Amino acid sequence: xxxxxxxxxxxxxxxxxxxxxxxxxxxxxxxxxxxxxxxxxxxxxxxxxxxxxxxxxxxxxxxxxxxxxxxxxxxxxxxxxxxxxxxxxxxxxxxxxxxxxxxxxxxxxxxxxxxxxxxxxxxxxxxxxxxxxxxxxxxxxxxxxxxxxxxxxxxxxxxxxxxxxxxxxxxxxxxxxxxxxxxxxxxxxxxxxxxxxxxxxxxxxxxxxxxxxxxxxxxxxxxxxxxxxxxxxxxxxxxxxxxxxxxxxxxxxxxxxxxxxxxxxxxxxxxxxxxxxxxxxxxxxxxxxx
Amino acid sequence: xxxxxxxxxxxxxxxxxxxxxxxxxxxxxxxxxxxxxxxxxxxxxxxxxxxxxxxxxxxxxxxxxxxxxxxxxxxxxxxxxxxxxxxxxxxxxxxxxxxxxxxxxxxxxxxxxxxxxxxxxxxxxxxxxxxxxxxxxxxxxxxxxxxxxxxxxxxxxxxxxxxxxxxxxxxxxxxxxxxxxxxxxxxxxxxxxxxxxxxxxxxxxxxxxxxxxxxxxxxxxxxxxxxxxxxxxxxxxxxxxxxxxxxxxxxxxxxxxxxxxxxxxxxxxxxxxxxxxxxxxxxxxxxxxxxxxxxxxxxxxxxxxxxxxxxxxxxxxxxxxxxxxxxxxxxxxxxxxxxxxxxxxxxxxxxxxxxxxxxxxxxxxxxxxxxxxxxxxxxxxxxxxxxxxxxxxxxxxxxxx
Lengths: 290, 401
Known about the structure:
The structure holds 2 protein chains of 2 kinds. Chain A is of the alpha/beta class. Chain A has 3 domains: 4-68 and 114-189, P-loop containing nucleotide triphosphate hydrolases (Rossmann fold), CATH 3.40.50; 77-111, no CATH class; 195-282. Helices cover 50% and strands 13% of the residues of chain A. Chain A has helices spanning 4-13, 20-32, 46-57, 72-75, 81-90, 96-103, 113-118, 136-148, 179-184, 195-205, 211-226, 235-247, 257-262, 271-276, 279-289, and strands spanning 36-39, 61-65, 77-79, 109-111, 125-129, 150-153, 157-160, 166-171, 186-189. In chain A, the strands form 3 sheets. A 5-stranded parallel sheet of chain A has the order 2-5-8-1-9. In chain A, strands 3-4 form a two-stranded antiparallel ribbon. The longest helix of chain A has 16 residues, at 211-226. The radius of gyration of chain A is 24 Å and the shape is elongated. The mean pLDDT of chain A is 88. By secondary structure, chain B is an alpha/beta fold. Chain B has 3 domains: 15-99, no CATH class; 101-194 and 226-401, Rossmann fold (3-Layer(aba) Sandwich), CATH 3.40.50.410; 198-224, no CATH class. Chain B has a 6-stranded mixed sheet with strand order 5-4-3-6-7-8, with helices on both faces. In chain B, strands 1-2 form a two-stranded antiparallel sheet. In chain B, helix 8 (241-257) links the parallel strand 3 (229-235) and strand 4. Residues 1-12, 92-162 and 186-194 of chain B have low confidence and may be disordered.
């Protein structure tokens, strides 16, 4: 997977329609072996990039979902306490040092995503999702891991990476990331797709959506995004909506303005937005879609 | 990054590639001047890209370098313009002009800031207005900023008259006190939980091996307290210019002391100024600030500025323990209804909204401007802020958050 046309093709085969810039980013990721940091509004398909990438590589996707308070034991490794306790009971009366060596061995180690990612035989795709939700300390730790690809476990020693994973980080911008982490990564801003690409995404993901319907939906969603909304619908919402319309057997949006308005709940997720897009507004937008 | 292939050997290169790498170095300098955080590793990777055949197709190279050098959305957006200007000799697109200060200079109050910074050295502080009752020193830190009587000529306002060393020191002190009080409060809270509420199994088992695994001495963990975050939105419009100076100093002090603080400045538009304000040296910070803030003078669009804030910054800078402090006189020249709506949206997001209005300290002032009327229902604390004393009076309130 060296050139970007091939990357775009392989991603498309796994259901992700990438634009030229994203394909470039992924080819660079392989060339320079840097992690890729994806930023963008919620719902533009950041996580999907990693999934499609794993699919295209025919490799495993290891996902670490970040949250406030995420620590090493949830992200890196943990000891299997129940088994350790059992083992201690079983070896009761033996030399304490030997028991200690025994229970802090590989057998009692539980891999968490980060450790798993560097101990695979073939390089997996490591998705670190919503890194901005984790706290600063975790970010610093992650930075260290991403530059050395080795982990030291006090009781066991240093674990070196057998294969360098393809790392994809996503961020929604709930917290400003450190400059060090940003510098370490390639940066790509994922924007809402344009009409053409969104239509292709709909066709790739929703079976039964015709080209004309997909285009209509994409145009409609684009004009809805231009309205002043609290929560702008993302690609995921578009796909939901397309699936709903296909499920209702609607082939042309113009034919069924009522159904279009009623299925808007797939796109609009707050009361205010719902109130703003009245039947009249929907009709006006529909008129432009044609 | 040594893992990215062999570093290019300068001596071993032919004339052309030497030219390219000189040019590349110059490009990196341009990027750094425009606020990109570009290190040596990135430069080396760029050289790798050039030799890997990217250099032959400008479009591809641009996109590749864009991913490599950008670190945030603002970088991402201005990169194309910078690249085109540097490598292809096109004119820089307007949106990448942020680094220049062409527009900032049009704003009367900001212009005076800039001038003040420039003239800082050679101008004596002759236009310092003494406090009306002239007894600053024995009233302990409540020096009054009575600039209102000179409000007739906005364009000629010299920022330096608010930069009297003594008053600056007091403003800093007020901010420092505020921060110190909050720190002690946080520590106290932490101590109360010293015993922890969650078992640390790993350490417990390790400790108790010698007891045959019977957990006799338990080790616990405690949660860390997140500090309060303070977000300051400062009105820097003409009508506020008498107060802008001292509040900028105050914000500078706050950003210095709080680990979590963000500052924004607005007049007709909103500008994120935390980075500029984090400059240690106050006058340099103000200098950077006047360069950064863009926007033509004329009126205050509080509603629109808040809308920008809610839309682009709020998600990032506001969490559940955030106090938003708006410093403004509430003279909205835009749509007051919009201001009301945006205030409502903001109130939903954050813990508290404090609205500081310097005019509120004046005798006979009533909040009758349409803007402040629309905003007040959503404000948790509405307080005057015309003296350092009134700033100091905020301490207990913020500490209670």
